[in-house]
Amino acid sequence: MITDDELARRAKEFMDANRSIADDQFAFRGAQYDAGLGMVHFPEGRGGLGGSRGQQAVVDAILRDNGVTYDDLRINPIGIGMGAPTVLMYGSEELKDKHLRRIFTGEDIWCQLFSEPTHGSDVAGIPSRAVRDGDEWVVNGQKVWTTLAHVSNFGMLLTRTNPDVPKHKGLSYFVLDMHAPGVEVRPLFQMTGEAEFNEVFLTDVRIDDSLRLGEEGEGWRVAITTLMNERVALAGGPSPRGSGPIAELVRVWRERRDSMSPTEYAVWRDRVAGLWVDAEIVRLTNFRAKQAAVGGSPGPEGSVGKLASAELSKRINEAIVELLGAEGMLHEPGYPMTRSSESMGTRTGRFLRSRANTIEGGTSEIMRNILGERVLGLPGDVRVDTDVPWSEIPK
Ligand SMILES: Cc1cc2nc3c(=O)[nH]c(=O)nc-3n(C[C@H](O)[C@H](O)[C@H](O)COP(=O)(O)OP(=O)(O)OC[C@H]3O[C@@H](n4cnc5c(N)ncnc54)[C@H](O)[C@@H]3O)c2cc1C
Questions:
Q1: Whole-number pLDDT of residue 330
Q2: How many of the other CB atoms lie within 10 Å of CB of 373?
Q3: Residue in 142, 167, 202, 360 to alter for ligand 1 test, most ligand atoms within 8 A of Cβ
Q4: What is the CB < 6 Å shell around ligand 1?
Q5: Residues 142, 265: one domain?
Q6: 345 and 364, same domain (yes or no)
């Protein structure tokens, strides 16, 4: 595997050669992909150098030191975090050629079409249907909570192709052109004031069979790859000590501590210090998991990281709002009903959004089930419908 020193040398050389196009996102990131420095844990020729996930931090630090601050999570979180690894693992060479580079540059934003109104945690039970018609599939159904669907060119679609086998066995997975006839995207407004996610209605949408990822009926296996990568992405990237939500808590604590009574001061100092320690533990645990992970599909450690990060984010944001007192109940200026992420720039906005951290990408209860079953080896959740043909499950 490539060493950190060699990676750093290549990143510096790349930076020197491409400084003049640094402001052009598509051109710069395209060149970064071609140099294997975009997703270093991907294979050579596909944006990477066969390194570990953690080694991306070596490249990113050098780019940052040179004033290049493109952020995967802002540019194309679902495409880079989940679409690219899924296409890499299950896509044909044509699909890899067509999509991977454009996902990384941000030319094509991607979304994930898994959840449906009746099925979120139990996504294997979704009722949307694809029926074969020659070389094409005709899809009907409704998706929900589809983050970024309103700006996406492509979506990862999980749908049922065979209702007469058990639920996990009758699913197939497709790359969906979000501008295809029959795809209708409607915004859903959240309590943060934004509409970053949507309902997506699929009416007689035709998808060519060449756009299938994985075998027919093997969609669940492909979906697991997407979900495992999603959890790693949601657990967060390598971050400096004391940064992110915990930095904000420390800032608010410093603003408020002088006006506290001695008792209040002692109680809050204890709470802030406890949260700081927890944040550091989560940061180091995620960091260690990423250092260890090489290419391929991540294991349950991503779910553990996602659980810990989401619950911590909620506790820290709650502490911030409590520290703010009555002010924490006010909507700060810059809080319009938007379709962007403006509320994330405010303390109350981040507090409201942190509730979603424990739901998106699988709820904390589901993460605990995975942790219990796949890491600790505890008895499994009660499952009464896994061997029954989907069409016979009471709806
Ligand atoms: C901000 C945000 C963005 C999202 N983006 C997307 C997206 O881009 N694409 C997409 O497909 N989906 C997306 N989702 C949907 C998300 O994946 C689902 O909301 C989530 O999986 C939960 O499903 P549900 O909402 O149907 O809740 P349900 O599954 O109905 O769960 C309701 C409650 O029951 C609990 N529960 C359910 N099953 C069990 C069990 N077996 N054991 C213990 N407790 C259980 C849950 O933890 C939860 O508390 C997003 C959600 C959010 C909040």
A1: 82
A2: 14
A3: 360
A4: 111-115, 120-121, 145-147, 197, 356, 359-360, 362-363, 365-366, 369, 381
A5: no
A6: yes
- State both tokens at 247: 């930095």
Element (H, E) at 279: helix 262-292
Q: What is the mean pLDDT of each run of 10 residues along the chain (395 residues)?
A: 95 98 98 98 96 90 95 92 96 97 98 97 97 98 96 98 98 98 94 88 98 98 92 74 93 96 97 97 83 64 86 96 90 64 76 92 93 92 93 93
Q: Which residues have C-beta within 8 Å of that of residue 136, sequence separation ≥ 6?
A: 206, 207, 208, 209
Task: Using alpha carbons, select from 244, 368, 358 the residue that is nearest to residue 304.
Answer: 368
Q: How many CB atoms within 10 Å of residue 356? A: 19
Residue 131: the pLDDT is: 98
Residues 240 and 348 in one domain: yes
- CATH number of the domain where residue 279 is located: 1.20.140.10
Q: Quickly tell me which residue has 């983050």 as its tokens.
A: 147
Domain for residue 127, yes or no? yes
**Same domain, yes or no: 257 and 209:** no
The overall longest dimension of the chain from CA atoms, in Å, is 76
User: In this structure, which amino acid lies at residue 220?
Assistant: W
Indicate the residue among 218, 239, 263 that finishes a domain: 218
207 and 240 part of one domain: no
Residues 207 and 268 reside in one and the same domain:
no
Query: For residue 161, what is the domain's CATH number?
Result: 2.40.110.10
Domain that holds residue 353: 224-375
Residue 359 inside a domain? The answer is yes
Full-model pTM:
0.92
252-278 per-residue burial string, b: 16 or more CB within 10 A, e: under 16? bbeebeeeeeeeeeeebeebbeebbeb
Give the Cα separation of 148 and 328 in Å (integer).
28
CA of 230 to the centre of ligand 1 (A): 14
